[in-house]
Write a structure and sequence with these properties.
This protein has 18 helices and no strands. The protein is mostly helical. Helix 7 runs parallel beside helix 9, helix 13 runs parallel beside helix 15 and helix 16 runs antiparallel to helix 17.
């Protein structure tokens, strides 16, 4: 009943506000929101935060949202931190960093993600400390939150995550090296090519794409026989990008043994064209004549 009543009250206030063309929150509406944020039920407090998040130009809103970070309900705290993305970073930096130590992992993760969007260099220390968080999704979020700053310290911190006990974290670490964090730790990523998780192997291949050493190429060639199609295809595509001459013989053999798979045959032929050696050209011509 309370939730329905506040909706009626707020909608009436909003209509009056729009009719008067009065920018910001009307005093009566603001006081109602303030009261409900303090004494309302959890669903009502969540709705109040949503309304406040749409009115962040009003100077009174920031202070009220900062107070809501201390709400006993974790859903309210999560929603409040999400609203911080629309406020000046210098205003909410301190409560965001404090929220990194919240007892609920959902709140910690939200704080990590908002700090990452704000790209605050002085928040790196508390963010990196959360790579030791008990919750895998908090650790996952930290990797994404710090990749905007590619330094030796960030690289080393993410490199350690390649050995995390949870596959979602290992995947995110490989993805970070594949999408911008440099330099990529080749030796560690070579180990990731043998990870039990298919998506870790996928992103490890992608991260090694621009490191076409003999060792890397040999390791990726082994994955053209991977049991997971997504890994196999990524390995084949990467060998084409690397113009890996050593891959021609195994790819030609694969072309002959997988004739029934039209998509795979098409991919192999495309890769052989990219590598472009006399042997690869001959294999393509022979296949075309036979089919």
């Amino acid at each position: 009943m309370e939730f329905a009543l506040i909706w009626v009250s707020l909608e009436q206030e909003k209509m009056a506000l729009q009719t008067a063309h009065n920018p910001g929150l009307a005093d009566r509406l603001f006081e109602l929101l303030k009261e409900r944020l303090k004494d309302g039920s959890a669903p009502t407090r969540i709705q109040v935060v949503r309304i406040l998040a749409a009115e962040t130009r009003d100077p009174r809103v920031a202070d009220l949202l900062i107070q809501a970070v201390g709400d006993p309900e974790e859903r309210v705290r999560v929603r409040t931190l999400a609203a911080f993305a629309q406020l000046p970073p210098e205003k909410v930096r301190a409560p965001l960093i404090k929220a990194l130590n919240d007892p609920h992992p959902g709140v910690r993760r939200q704080a990590v993600e908002i700090l990452g969007k704000m790209k605050l260099a002085d928040a790196l220390d508390p963010l990196l400390a959360r790579l030791e968080d008990d919750d895998q999704w908090v650790r996952w979020a930290v990797i994404g939150a710090v990749t905007w700053l590619s330094t030796a310290r960030i690289t080393d911190a993410i490199r350690k995550c390649l050995k995390d006990k949870k596959p979602v974290v290992r995947r995110r670490a490989c993805e970070a090296f594949a999408t911008g964090v440099k330099p990529a730790p080749v030796e560690d990523l070579l180990c990731s090519l043998a990870d039990e998780d298919a998506w870790v192997r996928f992103w490890a291949i992608e991260a090694l794409r621009t490191s076409p050493s003999v060792e890397v190429i040999e390791a990726i060639i082994k994955l053209i026989g991977d049991k997971e199609e997504v890994v196999r295809d990524r390995a084949i595509r990467t060998l084409g990008y690397q113009k890996a001459k050593a891959a021609v013989a195994p790819l030609v053999k694969m072309l002959k043994t997988h004739k029934e798979d039209e998509d795979l045959v098409s991919l192999i032929r495309h890769t052989l064209k990219q590598i472009d050696t006399p042997e690869s050209r001959q294999a393509i011509e022979e296949y075309a004549k036979a089919h």
